[in-house]
Amino acid sequence: MRQLLRGLSNATHTGEWHTTMPGTVRRENNMRLIALLLNPAIFGALALFLSLIWMLLDQKDKTRPLLVFALVLNLFFGSLLNVFMGKEGGLLPWKYDHILFVIDQALGVSTAALAAPLQGAWRIPLIVVYQFMVPMMICWFLVTRHRKLRGSVVMAYVGELVAGPLLYAVLPACGPAYAFGAQWLHPPQVQAGIMRLASMPNAFPSLHIATAFVFVLFAPGKLWRAVALSYLAATGMATLSTGEHYVIDLVAGLAFGCFAANVGFGRYRIAFLYLGVVLSWSLTIRFAYGFLIAHPSLLRSFALLTVGMAIVSLISEWRVLAVPAPEPATVLA
After folding, report:
1. Between vectors from CA 197 to CA 195 and to CA 201, what angle results, nearest 5°?
2. Which residues, 6+ apart, have CB-to-CB distance to 112 below 8 Å?
3. pLDDT digit string, tens, across residues 198-228
4. Where exactly are the structural domains of the chain?
């Protein structure tokens, strides 16, 4: 919701919708209505209500309660973060945003430079993509359930929503839009160091990218793979265009998506391997960021290796999905 309202405000202030005609007020009212309809809390509450009815229609189906449980976790995810991590003066008032900002610079990329071309006409559609995660989670549950694929995408969701807040506590950060405010598209030069920031830590790793990558790993068939890849690309652009994430958050988010997917596939040893990759990123940035910044070539190599691991995992999963399930043996009388 906060991303959508910021996008509407920016578009209005930059004159993108400026006009001297009376339609200005009507257009702004329409945008407020869109913001209300796209409120994740409303989406989540409606989805939870419908899923409860759906669960009661077939109480023998054991997968339906899992979806309801995942939706409950998602609906109260922000509240849980606020209780455990978010309040100013609480356990985690110090954030690592400036460090992540400088890490991006050492990688040779800039969130602001990537986000700037995505403002204007692109911004509102990308915010819609960013807020459309819960409906996509439900859609992918239905797609994978209908195709009777191995594994459980719901368990992948649960793995994300349980491990995500713990990782946010290891390396708390909020995103450039919160660290730099209205200047985030033209941020000043800062020194790598912790900063005091009164906002919930939900930047590193990116759970949006992780979930979108879970869709890709669970995608059955060429059509759904194309849809999943398109949504992954749009989510990547959305997380940057809204100022919610740094580029390095997306890199770690791919590894976190591999962790969640392997939880869904029931391969827990491999899942913890990927979780170890994400945790290694978090701990290294927190305690040895100076070393990473001083050795940009090594930092880029680690980033490329992480992305490469995600690509290898994707190819491996798609090859497995391409193998038809064995036919049950026929018993002759």
Report:
1. 105
2. 176, 184, 185, 186, 187
3. 777 788 999 999 999 999 999 988 899 999 9
4. 1-37, 87-322
